[in-house]
Amino acid sequence: MSALAAAPSLSLQWSDWLDLLTHYLTFSVMSVGGVISTLPEMHRYLVEHQRWLNDVQFNASIAIAQAAPGPNLLFVALMGWTIGMNAGGTPLALLGVLITMTGILLPSSTISYLGARWGHRNRDLRAVRAFKQGMAPIVIALLIATGWILASAHKDPARDWPLWLLTGATTLIVWRCRIHLLWLLAVGAILGGFGVV
Amino acid sequence: MSFTLLALQGFGGVLAIVQQELVERKRWMTKEEFVEEWAVAQIMPGPNVVNLALMIGGRHFGLPGAIAAAAGMLAIPLVLVLLLALVYGQYAGHPAVSGALRGMAAVAAGLIIATGIKLFAALKNNPLGVPVCVALAVASFVCIALLRVPLVYVLLGLGGLACVLTYRKLRP
Predict the structure, then answer these.
(1) SS3 annotation, A74-93
(2) What is the pLDDT of residues A75-119, one digit of tens each?
(3) Which residue in B113, B132, B144, B165 has the most chain A C-beta atoms within 10 A of its own C-beta, making it the best mutation to test that interface?
(4) pTM score > 0.80 for this model?
């Protein structure tokens, strides 16, 4: 529990919350290729500049969101939550979630919605078709690369080979069979929980 | 609209599950359509999966559908993740909890890789032809996974190249 003992204790003013909101609005616009790509900026702002989170809290937010079912971007909500907790408790934590999530979603969603609508209306244009079909091999490769990066977070082959095996087995099962994916996640949690992998 | 909401709440929102639901179970779209929409969601700023929900919801039901889809995508997982954070705060030191997180992360990695492999089938009808597609895909994979080139450069560089090649292949 050393992480909690070392947690910063904050007293935040309205101007601080506003600052948080404007920063997340900016992160949102910058987040081409996924929110995860703004992670270094968030670390600079939250941990190094404002000192609203410590390193352990920052990393825990990401780890929990990665492991939880749901979009990875929920690590943003967890950061808002933890800042609020550091500042004094659950009501402020909920405020933190509201602010960070609004900030990260509003600008990008507006741009994406309008952009996609434009693209759909003009879907017969040669340029639009070229873009969509040309990007197809790239985005498929990106998916596989993302999975690869997640798996290779475990670097020590001698100790971590069961995790690699689990990733490989999952890949084969999902590729070849039609099984609901939540079952597989549950199996992973059980195997991990009992220390098998 | 409420159908979208329910449908999207049913799953957690990992892309692997989105693909399974939309393409394989509900058959709302083909693999090719899915990849095309995904390409757009990827290039736009913001969380990809939420973008995808916005686009598909908006396509079928307009703005309310888009908002419902995005909310459905986020609401339940948000509650879950906050609960998980509370639990984690209590039991962070417990080895079973961190072990379970590791196990789930390993499975999640496999899910994502398998989704990518399945979507490869969508490239059969690509105007670039299969060999060029595979070459582009391998190059992207090497850049991102092995060389760790920032995503933006890969999207602009290889992505741009792919778009130009496709543009020349398509009939005016």
Answers:
(1) HHHHHHHHHHHHHHCCHHHH
(2) 899 999 989 988 888 889 899 999 999 999 889 888 888 888 888
(3) B113
(4) no
